[in-house]
């Protein structure tokens, strides 16, 4: 069975506090698990990049809900299509400078955006997921 995926970027209507981001991570993980959606959500300096993957109807419904959320503006769909397997089997969210122990203990938290870029990230042939992460990290 093919999975549907959608990748978008958006901007926050107002800056997210550390508390806002922690709440978003926890809520997103719960809601997406119930809907059978996996993916990744990155936030840095007021910008979001999200990958959603799952059944097409569920992904499109979630994206419509996100696009209508007043906390986001300027949504741009970067990629969408079908894939044979999940690129992000566990929901993950990357943060910049979010170092509280409470947040770091939430499942799915990643320090990816806080680590410096080195040449190692570009060695070999990166997957689509790695390319998206590296693009977001380089441009933010």
Provide a compact summary of the structure.
The chain is of the alpha/beta class and about 140 residues long.
Walkthrough of the structure:
- This protein is an alpha/beta fold and 140 residues long.
- The chain is 34% helix and 30% strand.
- A six-stranded mixed beta sheet has the order 4-1-3-2-5-6, covered by helices on one side.
- Helix 3 links the parallel strand 5 and strand 6.
Strands ordered across the widest β-sheet? 4-1-3-2-5-6
Name the helicity range: 25-40%
* Overall mean pLDDT: 77
Listing every helix as H and every strand as E from the N terminus to the C terminus, the arrangement reads: EHEEHEEHEH
Biggest sheet statistics: 6 strands, mixed
Count the beta strands. Answer: 6
Through-space gap between termini: 35 Å
The proportion of residues in beta strands is 25-35%
* Rg, Cα atoms, Å: 14 Å
Overall 3D shape = globular
Helix run count: 4
Q: Structural class of the helices, strands and pairings?
A: alpha/beta
Segments where pLDDT lies below 50 for 5+ residues? 95-99
